[in-house]
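Intended use. Records like the one below are meant for learning the mapping from a protein sequence to its folded structure. Do not use them to infer anything beyond what is encoded.
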Amino acid sequence: MANVAKKVSWSGRDPRDDEDERAGETTPLLNGTGPGSAGGARQFTPSSFLRPGQLSNVDLNEDIRELETELPRPYPNEIPHNEKLLSLKYESLDYDNSENQLFLEEERRINHAAFRTVEIKRWVICAMIGILTGLVACFIDIVVENLAGLKYRVVKDSILACSRPPARQEPLDLCPLLLVATRRMLGERAASSWPWCTDIDKFTEKGGLSFSLLLWATLNASVVMVGSVIVAFIEPVAAGSGIPQIKCYLNGVKIPHVVRLKTLVIKVCGVILSVVGGLAVGKEGPMIHSGAVIAAGISQGRSTSLKRDFKIFEYFRRDTEKRDFVSAGAAAGVSAAFGAPVGGVLFSLEEGASFWNQFLTWRIFFASMISTFTLNSVLSVYHGNAWDLSSPGLINFGRFDSEKMGYTIQEIPIFIFMGVVGGILGALFNALNYWLTMFRIRYIHRPCLQVIEAMLVAAVTAAVGFVMIYCSRDCQPIQGSSVAYPLQLFCADGEYNSMATAFFNTPEKSVVNLFHDPPGSYNPMTLGMFTLMYFFLACWTYGLTVSAGVFIPSLLIGAAWGRLFGISLSYLSKGSIWADPGKYALMGAAAQLGGIVRMTLSLTVIMMEATGNVTYGFPIMLVLMTAKIVGDYFVEGLYDMHIQLQSVPFLHWEAPVTSHSLTAREVMSTPVTCLRRIERVGTVVDILSDTSSNHNGFPVVESNPNTTQVAGLRGLILRSQLIVLLKHKVFVERANLNLVQRRLKLKDFRDAYPRFPPIQSIHVSQDERECMIDLSEFMNPSPYTVPQEASLPRVFKLFRALGLRHLVVVNNHNEVVGMVTRKDLARYRLGKEGLEELSLAQT
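Structure written out for the chain above:
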């Protein structure tokens, strides 16, 4: 059997981490291939039927015991990871409604007026999603702005040296710290009477800047440490931007804790601390995850984390409705981040939602519009311009003058070339991050190590920035500049260091400066060094155990090399007016971001809305398409790559193109655990309690209790439904089958959603085990089925288009012969050598 061990994942820390890690490479695979199988291909054997109620999974205990006796179990420093694995720990969401008798009776009772009320509630929820997402974005922006300004002032004060000559010789190494302390305690006037170094050069020669570097690195590392600790030890799923997790959720994969209130709190606090800590990150990406969590919470009308039920929106307590609102929340997050309502809708369509309809489009657009309006209004009041709605998003790229910055036909090949460069650099970024993530999975798998790595990256980022500022002599006049944090350093009076500005500014402001600063504002050497250093810092940073996004770092890298490209063109064309550096900074930013995340349509609209100019719509689209085509030739996009690294059973839009030779008989799981329409309670409890199977859907059949012959399919019932039935004791004694069992309503199932109690928490006495339970009223009598001769692409299309969790495979007599689940389909993919099958691993 193939070997695999537990690896770091989105689902958080498992209390059995130590046990799993000590197991090393002894964790067995389910449906895995043996070492003797050729080419890793699975050997298919004819299925054999089990009697109803019989447990279906292969017993692996014997294999486990053999492995334990053969292999030592030392505590490994390395966790092996195989990318050709599919994890069995991820469950699917129930996007298909179970149309049992309870559901149909409720739907028949609802009249036209009630349906109108439900539709109005949907619009109200979307409005609330937009408002709260906008307010969260405001909170993040205001806190980041104030904390970043405070950090800038502290570090700046430690670097400044007074111009007064010293009255006596003092140890100059203490100059910056004494200056800060004296100004804080005694005020500026008292501080001016203290002896300070005569000038910055003498101050540097005596080693004063070493304390400033230490102060900057310590501040950054301390802030990032707090942000990493709360993520690593409280809610690991809050790490990163959250976009891959939301993509998986909308695809139908249940990622544990991904839309919980605790995740939102850690996400917001974590992204604030990451940005303030000076990491090469942005706060825009996590807004998408934050909006999705807000949507999931509001739409349910309660908080399971706070154990508060507001008794509202109970109709929407199912996965189908929740998915649509999460799509709206993700779009509202994009809208709040970039001030792009249409871009938010298209992002949710292109990157997130797997299922779409016209009514959903309007509601999502409404949520996005409300989100950007809320953010705009609050920030306008905060900045003292209550009636000036000039802050539509967390980042505003500013207005480009279309009259001065148009483009001509001869620039089209230049834009295509920039797209090629963006695709190559994006592929390089993704490839480096891939190997870095593999290293983290193998070696940096403990929370304490993850925190140490985050602190190391923060300190190195500060040190690299400090050294580059120290080495730079790129001085620009302050007059007429819009720089928020000018730092003079080695420059003359009235000038500031542009390299220091690039590192001290928040990444969003640096992007805007690169777009709009006049020609001559940056030295080409400054841009080249900044691009090189920031590229590797951003690549190292993405994947840390901190809440952070990759949108703004990508835009900043692209804007830097794009402006450098524009300066080169201007030099070659001897200052022609069409070679404006700001225009090429915009194209470079689009090319770099498109080369990393591989978005086209939504990113085009986002860039157009954020710049307020449709003139560059065609060039941006051209650049993005080129970058995607070139990048896809080498490696896949960053989000898809991280989904694959976490072994998530993600279903793409289509089945592999070479999979027509496979049929449902070859891909289905078999044999299947079936239940009779009237089943013994003890049998149900035993099936649900068996940890080796852990099935979530059970076909219901009619059969003769005295034979093992399986009869025709009658329906499908879920584990969650059976648990609710057992919890409410919905069964009768065997001798009284004619009695009417306790009546349940759909409200009983909705109240238990989404955290259904485990079977171990439900007590069933020995007498109750002999009772009988009638599943007719609660099972779905019309589950989707396919014949065993159906091709894999046909099964795939039906499964994905309808958002199914279980697809029953039947023979010509309507007898159950197998079950197709998400993992059965996701394990087939198109590799470099054709169609390949992934192994299913209990990781």
